[in-house]
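Here is one chain, start to finish.
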Amino acid sequence: MTDDPVRATDLTLLEQAALLSGADVWETRPIPRLGVPAIWMSDGPHGLRKQESDADHLGLGQSEPAVCYPTAATIGNTWDEDLATELGKALGREAAAKGVQMLLGPGLNIKRSPLGGRNFEYLSEDPELAGRMAAAYVRGIQSEGVAATPKHFAVNSQELRRLVSDSVLDERTLRELYLTGFEIVVRESAPWAIMSAYNLVNGTYAHENAHLLTDILRGEWGFDGVVVSDWGGSNDPVAAAAAGGTLEMPFPGFASVRALVSAVENGTLAASDLQARVDEILTLTRRVNPRETSVVVDDDAHHALARRAAAEGIVLLRNESDILPLAPATRVALVGAFADAPRYQGAGSSVVNPTRLTNLRDAIAETPLALAGYAPGYRPDGTTDDGLLAEAARLAGGADVAVVALAIPDADESEGRDRPHLRLPQAQIDALRAVAGSGTPVVAVLAGGGPVEMPWLGDTAALLHTYLGGQAGAEAVWDVVTGAVNPGGRLAETLPVEAGDTPASWAFPSDHRTAEYREGLYVGYRYSTSAGVAPAFPFGFGLSYTRFAYSELALTESEASFTVTNIGDTAGSDVAQLYVARTSPSPVYRPARELKGFAKVRLAAGESTRVSLPFGERAFRFFDVRTSGWEVEEGDYEILVGPNSADLPLRATRHLDGTVPAGHGDPALAAYAAADVCQLPDAAFAALLGRAVPEREWISPPFDRNTPLDQLRRSPSRLVRFAFGFVERAKRRADAQSYPDITMAFIFTAPLRTLDKLTMGTFSPVFTDAVMSIADGRVIRGLAAAVRAFLGGRRADRRTRRQVARASGSDA
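Its structure:
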């Protein structure tokens, strides 16, 4: 064998086809005769989840112990690219040490709504922040010889019906809001892989969407890596290969292999397309570390990094009379069941089995504070207990300060389901108010992956939002409370007063066939600043134990520069933020301001620094649907600088010649120009789309492979409807549990094709066709076909397995 790299043309057609789907839940298929190794993948957005046995993709089985770092939502609050790179390096090193060559993360989908169930895995509501932070993660991970896999590409904003939901949006919103973060990652960190989303985008599944994968990702951005499907997210392997989708995961049986071979042989798939996908996988095998390495991980050092990162991501939202930091020897009443059993990560495929875990109750012993006692205050299941309330109030009454641990429950925040509301359980609020009624100042410590409504805010003297701090999160809280760390976290998302203050809330999550992005560009602060809806706390907000002043803004052709001064008496950090607003009249509707630059600034007391933020190619552009390209409108633009989206003391104007003149407005888009985007009528949304609004309701029967299971309630067969009743009752029982049942959430709205895509070859596509026949009311004929399909599919898979093994030189 020569030293020349293996190419697709060195493989037989069967081997090529076999390489485009997984060998099992986590591995690609090796080609031993050519020395092509398998690649091992693992979930890893905030810690390694490697499973050797009992493998699954939903986080159900136990994984090997690994350091559980703060989730992406927490790290987004740091606005610290250097820290994200450091975390990426640590994740990459742990992966390499365990023989993992491809980490499935980071997650950078836009937080379209605070009700998104998986928002804890995502970095921000803003693409500039999400993209730059994700790019930093990728650089760190890949510096250790491990492939990073930014996800989920693209427009994956809700968990409900995520395998069948069609995200419907206009091209400008797609480009400017939902793709820009991915563009930044690809251009600035060159990831070796990208994970496609479960959902459809404008009528086509993401994993087989040529506009996304070929035109934009590979064509415009120059991506040369592997596009791996989310687990079970592949629909049609032939369409995927033609469109730029590389790898189907997990192992779907050998039906996909046979379909690819047949498509090339009959001319419906170009051999060059198949070979391009194979070459992407072969390139990946050369880029990553070999499975066996001598890498050693220092668990103590990585735990210390997790603690530092958690502290940096904590956001101080309230600090009346500067009650924080607490002085040494302060007598603290610790209240709240979550002080003993912490919420430190989300539920689902990202669940990490931590190497160690601290809680507030134990970790306070390492501080100079004095623990006056602990009281649970409320039951973890959300039930108010008058005895617990009285006990908490008595304890607080004898202390200098009460620290009350609050948290969004697991059941309200999980992969597979969206949040039903933004409220904390009443039992927690009752405990907080009982403690406040004692007259002792209350420091509330809130854990959770996103916003909550805060009608109880006035009962607190201080409020820390820790988000989800990982295994060292409790130690990080005390670091901030005692002043060992000056809080530098700044909100990476807007915290609304209530869920109804967000424009997508009236239809989120969509229970229909489509999820209509009628609000366009108005997400998060882009909406609140444009529509004049005051949030509880604005995007970019966060308090410190010191104060900062901004001055002396100056503009050049290439950058904005200004001075930041620490005018307080202690060292600290701030995030200098630059926003752009168009001031000249324009027919192109725009949010009132958009983030276009930021820098983390660390200053000693009394110190000043000059900050320069460049005007990159993204600063003034918009996607022009008339030219199908990025343009800059001629006119005046205001540059705004300050500590958050609602506090921008420095302002200056810049005139740009642009690439296009200002045109004429479209009266049909008047609602968008006015940011009046709540519950828009079909006509307004159609004007934005530039086409008719697609049918949003399910039309079944007849059923097809992508009909979700819950639509079987419409089957003309009484037997099918009767059987479905058992599933429906099981779903109701699962929803009533205090801990989310991910499996049931996944299954209930999964498409029928998961019968053959997620059963490791147990069932074939022909079997799924037979099930559809049963659902359509042809029960006897369908049952007979199902038996034939099951037996025939098993025989066909055994035959193909032997053929692949013989061709590649692997074990059958």
